Each structure stands twice: as C-alpha cells, then as structure tokens.
Predict the structure of Pathogen-related protein.
Amino acid sequence: MTLPDYMTDRNAVLADENVAWRDGKAPNYSKPNALFEAERTQIHPSDSLEHLVENLVKNWEKEASFKTQAADWRTIDHKVYKFSTNGGEWQTVEDMLRLGTYNALLGETQYYSSKNSGFEESHLTFKQSLRGGFAWECLKVYSGPPVVAFKWRHWGKFTGKLRCPISDTEKIVAEPTNKTVEIFGVTVAHVNDKFQIESLETFYDPAALFNEMLKDNANIARCPITGQSA
C-alpha cells in the first residue's frame, strides 16, 4: 500500500501549491522542527505506527493553523470530520478555522479565556512566550487504524513574556523563567482507508501548560486588558 505523503513527511503540506495560506505563504517551521530534533525523547523507526501517526498529526496541525480554506486541508475526511477536547462538544473544521487551534484545545481555564482571545491573538500568545518553538512528538501508539489511540508530548522553553486573557477585562502577565515547559495527553483518532482523519478526541489538562509557566514564578501580574500594556 502506498502511504500518503502527509504520513511519511512531517512537512509535506508545506509544499502544497495554490492554497490559501494565512499569511499569504507557507509558514516557517524551522524553530519547532529544530527543537523537535534536539529534544525529542523518542526516535521511531520510519515504518512504525508512531512515526506515521506523528507525521499525520504534524501535517494536520499545520493545515489547521495556517490553511484558511477548509477545502485545502488534505489530512481530513471533509464529509465527517469532527474534533473534541476532554469529552466536550464536537467541533467542525469551520469551528476550528474560526476559533484557532489553541483556542479549540484550551477552552476556558483559570489562566486563559478562549472566549476573549481571537485566532491571531491566541497564536501570538504562544509565539511570544515560547520563542524557540512549541514542539510535539508522539510517544506511543496503543492501537492501529482505523481507531488510533496514542499518547503525546508538547513542549517548549518559556523565554518570552506571557500575556493571556483570563476574562474580558483582565489578563495575566508573567515574565519568562527560561525553563522548559511540557504537557502530555492522549488522543483517539478515527481515520478512513486513505488515512484521512474522520474524528479526533483529545484528552489532557488544559491548565497544565500554564501551571508549568507560572509555578515558582515571582513575576506574575494581573492587568486590565484596556489599561496600559505590560
């Protein structure tokens, strides 16, 4: 069986032409790719399920974050695709395009309010605070297609100021600690016979990343969103 390129090459979709990219061109993934190569905890054989699933998810994330037209996404089955976090309501591809990947995954926590952060703002929050990139790796696959259950790790170094809304009037501002922050989770994916994603159910603690960034951090402030920028 010939596998699609998005399962054998983690950057496959970046070469797609005649698609609508968010910034008018394919994004630059050099920082997260370099971080992944330097600090991943697993090196999977190229024919392993872990390697293939890792590439599929990385390409899905690139499409979800940077392709602005749902029709251009190659990693999903457009007829049935849906996404949920921690047993919450199912979201469609259009929901994710409107909300953004970070907002769709984080929702509402004591440290972050997705209702008060737009698509661009949410990406800027993590681009500014995790300046060296936010890498992702598949740790272990527990079941093969068509129902693929896997554990993952997401990490980066907190080297830039964190600014994130916690309500419509207030935000948290925290100075960087220059420490590595990481989160773990489990995802269950249903795929079709073309290995396109039909559904994704992700389970993890949305507050975990902020707990990592704010623990033992003496430089944290609550600031009004309408006031002077911190």
The chain has a mean pLDDT of 94. The longest helix spans residues 49-66.
